[in-house]
Amino acid sequence: MNDETPDLSQAGLRGLDLSGFDLSRADLRQADLRGTNLSQANLSRAHLEGANFFKAVLDGADLAGAFLYEAQFLNCAQLVVTRNWQTAFRDETLGCGASIPDKNSSK
Predict the structure, then answer these.
(1) 50-56 contacts: CB < 8 A, separation 24 or more?
(2) Overall pTM surpassing 0.85 (yes/no)
(3) Is the C-alpha dihedral spanning 31, 33, 42, 66 positive or negative?
């Protein structure tokens, strides 16, 4: 089993087509994801803190246990078309009508 975690922190991924990519557990903190197509991508347990999601396409992306604290330009309309978004660790502004997992259980 490959336990390597891709370090894409602060990466400029603007406008790329990453649909269907396996980015589970990837470090995407502060990444520029503006206009990036992440449809059907596996973002489970990915670190997306502070990433810029302006106009990013997330349809069907798996956000199980992803870390979305301080994500920029991410909104409920983008979240609700993903899978498992309710289990993502996120700020109150991304409550979107579901309970927010306790951040202490993310350790």
Answers:
(1) 53/78
(2) yes
(3) positive
Give the C-alpha separation, 92 to 34, whole Å. Answer: 22
For 69, other C-beta atoms within 10 Å of its C-beta total 16
Q: For residue 25, what are its two tokens?
A: 């557990």
- The pLDDT score that the predictor gives to residue 1 is 43
Residue type, 48: L
Which tokens go with 21?
A: 């990519």
Amino acid at 26: A
Q: Say how many residues make up the chain.
A: 107
Type and span of the H or E element at 76: helix 76-79
Q: How confident is the model at residue 103 (pLDDT cuts 50, 70, 90)?
A: confident
Residue 2 predicted with pLDDT over 70: no
Say which residue the tokens 């670190």 belong to.
47
Written as one letter, the residue type at 72 is Q
List pLDDT tens digits, range 55-86: 999 999 999 999 999 999 999 999 999 999 99
